[in-house]
Amino acid sequence: MGVALAVGLSAAGGAWAGPAARAAPGQEVGPVTNLPIPRFVSLKASEANVRRGPSLNQRIDWVYKGRGMPLEIIGEYGNWRRVRDRDGVGGWVHYSLLSGARTVIVEQDMLALYQRRDPQGPVNAYMEAGVIARVEKCGPVWCRLSAGGQRGWTTHEGLWGLRAGEVLD
């Protein structure tokens, strides 16, 4: 997975923590945290063992590498969270290795980061596919992201780690 950021290709040249996620009426919630299931988080550690079940005694199937990688929590059991990545694969990870800070993976190559919420406006930078960007805030259409010292606005399209129309302050 690449993490390069193409900068300066146009003529123009914080951490979102927010309140805890709340479940919408009728949405499933986790039995441990009472937070919505599914929900997105990010990898806090630079490495995380992904286990076959929710226990240190369970076999490690693989290791996630890459601090900030967005993951989707799809289950909870004690101190363990069942997660999946953008490829739909996953397993069980200890909750201490996860963060509520929101990030996304850019799936569209050369995704423009605009100075403002205007696709006709100046571009601050272009992000390559595979870049992990921090979500500063999102409206139903536009999100403010930062990566590699660059920040700007882009639409939800071409990003993995957000629900369609999700709003984050």
Task: Report what the structure shows.
By secondary structure, the protein is mainly beta. It has two domains: 5-15 and 104-160, SH3 Domains (SH3 type barrels, Roll), CATH 2.30.30; 39-101, Roll (SH3 type barrels), CATH 2.30.30.40. It is built from no helices and 15 strands. The protein has strands at residues 5-7, 39-43, 47-51, 60-65, 70-77, 80-84, 90-94, 98-99, 103-106, 111-114, 123-127, 132-138, 142-147, 150-155, 159-160. The strands form four sheets. It has a five-stranded antiparallel beta sheet, with no helix packed on it. A five-stranded antiparallel beta sheet has the order 14-13-12-9-15, with no helix packed on it. A hairpin with a 2-residue loop joins strand 5 and strand 6 (80-84). The radius of gyration is 17 Å and the shape is globular.
Short recap of the structure:
The chain has 169 residues and is mostly beta strands. The chain has 2 domains: 5-15 and 104-160, SH3 Domains (SH3 type barrels), CATH 2.30.30; 39-101, SH3 type barrels, CATH 2.30.30.40.
Low-confidence regions: 1-20
CATH superfamily of the largest domain: SH3 Domains
Number of strands: 15
N- to C-terminal separation?
A: 28 Å
How many DSSP H or I helices?
0
Question: What level of helicity do the residues show?
Answer: under 10%
| CATH domain class name of the largest domain | Mainly Beta
Net shape: globular
How much strand? 35-45%
Strand order of the largest sheet: 7-6-5-2-8
* Rounded Rg: 17 Å
What structural class should be given to the helix and strand makeup? mainly beta
